Amino acid sequence: MQLRYALAIAALALSPVAAYASPNCTTESSDNWMSKQDMKTKIEELGYKIKTFEVTGNCYEIYGWTSDDKRAEVYFNPVTGDVVEAEIDG
């Protein structure tokens, strides 16, 4: 019985982390998304240097650097190209 409670508490404690893992970037169908190449071009125009580019949930996401060489993890709306969430080091 105690193990069941411990597992339930652990699941509750971890659930906010999983929910925060990637933001909700759009509700639009992927048919309406900017092409990956167009999005990469827009990201570079915004001043980011891309190390990796991927689709995460309903977002385009990069790991890379800002124009002033700070490490960055950035989520973009795949329809508009707007930044939805960014974590910039330093």
Describe, in plain words, how this protein is organized in 3D:
This protein is α+β, with helices and mostly antiparallel strands. The protein has one domain (23-88): Nuclear Transport Factor 2, Chain: A, CATH 3.10.450. Helices cover 32% and strands 30% of the residues. A 4-stranded antiparallel beta sheet has the order 1-2-3-4, covered by helices on one side. A hairpin with a 2-residue loop joins β1 and β2 (59-65). It starts with a helix and ends with a strand. InterPro entries: PepSY. Residues 7-86 form the PepSY domain. Keywords: Signal. Residues 1-21 form the signal peptide. It comes from Devosia pacifica.
User: How many strands?
Assistant: 4
Tally of separate helices: 2
Uncertain stretches of 5 or more adjacent residues: 15-19
User: The biggest beta sheet, please?
Assistant: 4 strands, antiparallel
Helical content band: 25-40%
What string, H for helix and E for strand, traces the elements in order?
Answer: HHEEEE
Mean pLDDT: 86
CATH secondary-structure class = Alpha Beta
User: Structural class, judged by helices and strands?
Assistant: alpha+beta
Strand content: 25-35%
Per the CATH scheme, the topology name is Nuclear Transport Factor 2, Chain: A
Shape: globular
Question: Rg, please?
Answer: 17 Å
Number of individual domains: 1
CA(first)-CA(last) distance:
46 Å
